[in-house]
Each structure stands twice: as C-alpha cells, then as structure tokens.
Design goal:
Layout lengths: L41 H18 L4 E2 L5 H5 L6 E3 L12 E4 L1 H7 L10
Antiparallel strand pairs: 1-3, 2-3
Length: 118
C-alpha cells in the first residue's frame, strides 16, 4: 500500500480521518459511491470540502493511486468529484487509480479551488 507522505491524516481539529495507517491484511475496503443528501450535518460537509482541498493540493489534475487514503472519505466523493482513472477499475485495490473530475469538484466545493480554503 502506497503511503502518501505529507497528505493530511485528518481534518484539523476533528476526528474526520483522511488516511489510514496500515493496510488491512484481508484486503482493501471496497470503495462504494455514497449518496450525499442535502440534510447532511455541516461538520460532514466541512470534512468533504477539506478532503477535496487536500486531494487538489496534493495531486491536482494528475491521476493518483488510492494507497492509504481512507475508503469511507473517498466513498463520499466517488463517481462525482473523484472518478476512476483506469479501466477496469477495482474498487477493492490499494493500487486503484483515481482522478479528480475538476469541473464537478469546482461546482461542488468552490472554496477548495479558489484559495479561500486552507
């Protein structure tokens, strides 16, 4: 499992995790696109925005390996702001390649891209 050195481990001041410390010996937790409903808590929305900002700051438009990025946090963005960068895509692989869909990500999280976040 690739560890993204320098990537934030969590949203500052919270327990919202962005990375995992070690791989699961049983295999990676599968990524599953989760529905984001309008009534989500503000703290959850801030965690999504903070994670998107961290992804953009660390990877930009380049494809990236899932590695030690938290499956739960990635699943909130999967198939919207974060999309597979390879075919076939294995959602249960630490080596799966992903990329940011910049157009959708800017629309969903403008502060993560305009410099007003972080």
């Amino acid at each position: 499992m690739l560890k993204h050195k320098g990537f934030p481990g969590r949203l500052p001041g919270t327990d919202f995790q962005f990375t995992i410390r070690r791989d699961n010996k049983k295999g990676a937790t599968p990524l599953v696109a989760r529905e984001r409903y309008a009534d989500r808590k503000p703290a959850d929305r801030r965690a999504d925005e903070g994670f998107m900002w961290a992804l953009w700051d660390y990877f930009g438009e380049e494809p990236f390996e899932r590695g030690n990025l938290d499956a739960g946090r990635l699943s909130w963005l999967l198939e919207r702001e974060v999309v597979p960068a390879e075919e076939p895509f294995d959602p249960a692989s630490y080596e799966a390649l992903l990329r940011i869909d910049v157009v959708r990500a800017r629309a969903s999280f403008p502060a993560a891209f305009d410099g007003s976040y972080g």
